[in-house]
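Notes from the 1:1 (GR / supervisor)

We went over the backlog. Supervisor wanted to see one worked example end to end before approving the batch request, so GR pasted a single chain during the call. The sequence is below; no edits were made to it. Supervisor asked that the structure be written out right there so they could see what the output format looks like.
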Amino acid sequence: MHASVSVEVFSALEPLVPGEAVVAERFLHPRRGPVATPAAALLAADLRNRGVNARSSTLAGGTLPGGPQGSAVVHAVTYLARDASAVGFAVAVDHRDTDVSATVREVVGAWTGVLRTRRLLLAAVEPACGGTQRALGMAARERGRMPRLLGPLSANPFTMAELHAQGAIAVEDLDDVPPSATVMFPAHGVPLAVQAEAAALGLSVVDATCPLVSEVQQEIRELAGRGSTVLLVGRADHAVSAALLDQAPSATVLVQTLDEADRVEVDDSKRVAVVVAPGIPLAEATPVVAALRSRFGWIVPQHPATYCYAASDRYASVVSMATCSEVVLVAGAPDCADARQVAGWVRTCGRPAHIVNALHDVRPEHIAGASIVGTCAATSAPPGLIDQLTHVLSGLGPLATVGRTARTDLVGTAVTTVAPRP
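Structure output shown during the call:
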């Protein structure tokens, strides 16, 4: 690719006003003809971040030095794609505007420095688990009589905003649900007392509780009913934890860390059961479970058929992608706990991770020198951001996009029947 890279300055008749720069959505190069500019949005965002009034437009053809001079100076970079078509970027500025010209030269130079042939590795797994997607599908089928939502159906704020725009109303408790309305329980479930109250009020209920969550709730009740203290390996900030702890509140204890595993108190150390909350990757939970097993000896384990393999598959997909990447861009909001967690998984693999909530968050230094860039979506990722990242990176050198996915399929369970002793 480097043999075909051309960095040039030419003149054009683009009408400009002082203080502004025009980033080419596409342009006509004096020698190479039409030039595609997928990375234009990155340069426009960079210029705006630096205080330049940048707008996008098509730039007409210009002339190289020695030809007729126009009012605009165009800083252009082009290279030849695999099919010999021209790709690149260009920014025009009024030739009299020295301050903006200096900033334009700096920005164009910075993005020119990251041009190279790349692979883009996608952790091709949905951040929303099957339970969440099932709940959203159930909500879609209720369209026309959109129910009251007792808790968010999705961790993605854009998805929730769309539901609210369609008429869904979020409520804090059942007191806010009119008798004639329908209430919808989210995928992470609700406490037993809420279920009982809804029944007592005679409310119409759409129960979108994930079937796997329901199975784990039942398993907790059964284990506690046999006299075991149930140690729930999970996180307090996960919505599913409250409903799970409520299944047997006097016999269930949340354990989040190795330190808590060393300190947790139980009534009878010989009657301990351990359950992993849905949404927790097994790779995260296993060290905590092992510490509890080491401390208490034999424990009653959770049936592996009720593990949340979706969380584990997502973790494995991200780790596989990160291990083979030189840098990873995590699509999501910087204040999103899930985005920070995913970035943490990447950094545990020894790779730098940058959380980007929009294209303007991508900096040249993030990808400088990287020939393999990974990307994945957090639960807060704006719609289409992964596709946008793929598009703009395709304008910074020849790009091949590769998906990486880990998938676990539960193909069956074995049941052993033990005959009672005579």
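Supervisor's comment: The mean pLDDT is 90.
Batch request approved.
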